[in-house]
Protein: Bifunctional NAD(P)H-hydrate repair enzyme
Amino acid sequence: MSAIEGRLFAAGMPVAALMEKVAQAIFKRVIALYPHPRVRRIGVLVGPGHNGGDALVVARELHFAGYEVLIYRPLSKGKELTGQHGEYVASLGVKFHDQIEPLLDCDLIVDGLFGFGLERSISGEIAEGINRLNAQSQPVISIDLPSGLHTDTGAVLGTAIQANHTLCLGLWKLGLFQDQALAYVGKAELIDFDIPLADIQAVLGDRHPIHRITSTVAIAHLPLPRPQLTHKYKEGHLLAICGSQRYMGAALLCGLGAKASGVGMLTIAVPNSLKPYMSQQLADALVVGCPETASGAIAHLPDSIDLSSFGAIACGCGLTLDGMGVVQAVLESDRPLILDADGLNALAQLGTIPTLCQRQAFTLLTPHPGEFKRLFPPDQDESEDLVRAVRRASEQTGAVVMLKQARTAIGYPDGSVWINPESTPALARGGSGDVLTGLSSGLIAQAIARKIPVEPLVQTAVWWHAQAAISAALARTELGVDAVTLSEFLLQVLPQFTRSGN
Ligand SMILES: NC(=O)C1=CN([C@@H]2O[C@H](COP(=O)(O)OP(=O)(O)OC[C@H]3O[C@@H](n4cnc5c(N)ncnc54)[C@H](O)[C@@H]3O)[C@@H](O)[C@H]2O)[C@@H](O)CC1
Ligand SMILES: [K+]
Structure:
């Protein structure tokens, strides 16, 4: 962002003009969210840099719009332009304070302490001021990002403002999408200020891109509409190898996710003793019973299963580590493969990188953070930056790596990363991952049958799964989104998007 900003200034855009333009847009958003006189007293936090400069321009406009404005400026020295705005705002009679106390009873706080220029931990009186404010209940709007967050990693540097709204300027800051920032960001919005595309490309063009998964992108890759002339095997044949006596439900949930994907044919391989249960629950799947171990896991696949006859294979949900032999067999096959849960634990034991480097076919790994650490032990720099870790994992193995967390990130071998910006804590529930594995695998099997690119369907699956959960939580609260319900909402939520897409 600062490189892009530098190009605008070099091209002749006056710094003050850009700040004015940006801050006017912020001001408009603030008064739309908190109109006068519903809100009367606004406290504005002003830092020493241009984030503080933005805040002062907003403060000036709020003053003229009739609000009572109070300013907290803990550091009197700062950048020149910020200082000039400060002088003018003070000349209008707006009161400046170097303590937070006078602002504590304001109806609203606008936070312009630090933006992307934060370079070290916040400490001392400023940290205390932020902590006192966080203990209050009035709403907070942060300019660019909540002061105290690292722009890229979202890590809290010392302490950070807990915002209700974050008005991010110009381009999305990666830190806002990192899990560790979520408790601070509130609702994030982008404030556009007409950055020329050429400048964005000149700065970001040759770097590994990071994208947000939007509904438009996700829907564009759905295998819809189906061609008129087709048959079941042309719509994908998925083999899901899953379940054990210990984890029967995982197999069913994987099956329900796959079923919702619309895959043409679904074959499910489970331990022999699960076959009657699965056949009863999933009438449309072909259920194959496998010889089982004494512990009730799949011992090996029966001779009747020819792996090469499937478009894609999903393996791992509810398998237990006793089913490890079967994971080795599918890893050795030349079929596109989706590995989850114990499939991932087995892979970690086999050696993630050497094993995957031998595979030629497409591989998708779907770890949660615990599994991810087992597969890819973190190096020190990465402990705070999971996006970087996911990128490295994918580049090292050639696999697509879906790191399931509050804001799921997908790493691709070409270095690109896709983040799902919209989700719900309702998904923090046993079984929701099994549904996602089934859904992803079913979509991938269809893409393979249709000979369309497989990779984007991973984004589609993550987005679709999250939207189903959001919709289910709206209907039933966040407590009502059990995995079976989630699988039912997958198909309930889709028409509203595909219809508006037509
Ligand atoms: N992106 C853009 O092109 C634009 C950015 N603008 C604003 O400018 C901001 C960036 O401005 P700056 O680069 O001046 O940076 P900031 O305003 O984020 O802060 C930098 C200042 O804070 C001090 N500082 C850093 N860490 C500190 C700490 N822990 N304790 C005490 N002081 C500390 C630095 O010495 C420096 O004076 C953006 O976040 C945005 O709000 C807008 O004004 C205009 C357009
Ligand atoms: K800020």
